[in-house]
Amino acid sequence: MRLYFVRHSEVIEEYQGRYNGHIDIPLSKKGREDARELAKKLSHVKFDRAFCSDLLRARETIESFELECEVVYTDRLREKSWGRHEGMSFEEIVSEGLEYKTFEQWIADLEGERLESYATRLSEYFNDVLLKQNGDSILIVTHAGVIKMLISLNEGLSLDETFSISLPYSGYIVYDTNLKRFLI
Questions:
Q1: Average pLDDT of the chain?
Q2: Torsion sign across C-alpha atoms 174, 176, 179, 180
Q3: pTM for this one?
Q4: In terms of residue numbers, what domain contains 81?
């Protein structure tokens, strides 16, 4: 079985380059076009099931796919909550006095959902729900942080390593259950 992890398409401009977390943001015009292009690119894949973050940017992305299967919308595939830092840029957060030392320290120091809770939420959903599906191909539309955290947890890579992997808006990475690894 293959799990297709898709990052949602581009959001409206005022939220680009920000820690958006649980803010419910729509796609930009370009984002909607890119979602349609991605759906065409993956149209050769017959998805047996689909899972999607319940946030608008992910829901609008999956709407571009002409799926013949059920879509499960869930808050368990949401990005990490950044608490009071949601909607802020790196520069705005630094200007408030939070110092960047290492990537893992930075993520842990930002407010909102604790890093350990975030990792546990994603790991449990991956192992208890996604890996227990039947079929050949499963579509998962979510957020870059979710995908990169799952790569870190499953490939034994540090957060620094996985968050340096390029995963643009409308990008995707496949997890092969036979190989038990992400095809990066």
A1: 96
A2: positive
A3: 0.96
A4: 2-183
